[in-house]
Write a structure and sequence with these properties.
By secondary structure, the chain is an all-alpha fold. The protein contains 15 helices and no strands. It is globular, with a radius of gyration of 18 Å.
């Protein structure tokens, strides 16, 4: 994959001065947005991601600040709820009454599907076990619903349906991406070094999550997810859910009533994805 141009990326965010005003987590999320924007199916891009991908003209810091009161959504808004390029929304196809996770991949995860399938394919090729492959398959699909703190949101959404180990891997991958692990083959991303500075220290809640995960027996599962997540943004990759259907069948606890109809702790999240046009 063609590497992301650092100068263009910074310019797309409003220049060095604008980047300096962003939190480190916001910078990391903007970087992931820009990478994901270059994968097939990423029809709705954030303003920063779209600009970074297309090398559009960059606004000044003052212009960015002046835009805030005019925005109709926050950057943390899920990808399903707004087209950041200002285009009108399209009608969504109806989900089956007893929708499965495969149905959601086909009909709701348009913007995150390719990246997650690439990540799962990476795990499959590296010989990861099926619980980790499933974690890679699911980990970023929650971005359709909400972007901020996506590791925790995603773990909450899938916890009733997957193993504790898969949930753990999903929850902590957000924090682990900032910490290298030579034994696992994970090096600190060079673009993080140039974006955040060589003396960057992650915020306390991220450091606390890393410290906790590092001591747990399932640390390796979450670490493998970060390894497979980092390199899963190839815009030319051709991927399919077919290699993972049996893994889903063995490890995803599909409710007989259908996702969203089963009264689980996160059924409401699937109902929201099913009908994001509900006014209340």
């Amino acid at each position: 994959m063609q590497p992301l141009d650092r100068r263009n990326f910074i310019a797309a965010l409003g220049g060095s001065a604008a980047v300096s005003l962003m939190s480190h987590e916001a910078r990391a999320d903007a970087l992931e947005d820009a990478l994901m924007a270059r994968t097939p199916g990423a029809a709705s891009l954030s303003a920063a991601a779209a600009a970074a991908a297309s090398v559009a003209a960059a606004p000044t810091v003052a212009e960015l600040e002046a835009q805030i009161p005019t925005l109709t959504k926050r950057r943390g808004t899920g990808r399903l709820f707004a087209n950041d390029d200002g285009s009108k929304m399209s009608l969504l196809p109806a989900l089956p009454t007893k929708a499965t996770i495969s149905d959601y991949f086909a009909l709701r995860f348009d913007r995150t599907r390719n990246h997650c399938l690439q990540s799962a394919n990476q795990a499959l090729q590296k010989g990861a076990d099926e619980e980790v492959i499933l974690a890679c398959l699911l980990h970023d699909t929650v971005l359709e619903l909400v972007r901020a703190d996506h590791g925790w949101w995603s773990a909450q959404m899938y916890e009733p349906y997957v193993s504790e180990r898969t949930t753990f891997a999903i929850r902590y991958h957000q924090a682990l991406r900032f910490y290298p692990d030579s034994e696992a083959g994970y090096t600190y991303p060079e673009i993080y070094r140039t974006m955040f500075g060589t003396d960057y220290v992650p915020p306390p809640h991220i450091k606390a999550a890393y410290d906790h995960a590092r001591k747990q027996k399932w640390y390796g599962a979450s670490r493998m997810l970060t390894v497979c997540d980092l390199y899963a943004f190839d815009p030319n990759a051709k991927v399919s859910i077919e290699p993972f259907v049996d893994i889903i069948g063995r490890h995803f606890k599909q409710p007989k009533e259908g996702l969203g109809n089963d009264n689980s702790r996160s059924a409401h999240m699937f109902r929201t994805l099913a009908n994001p046009d509900a006014p209340l």
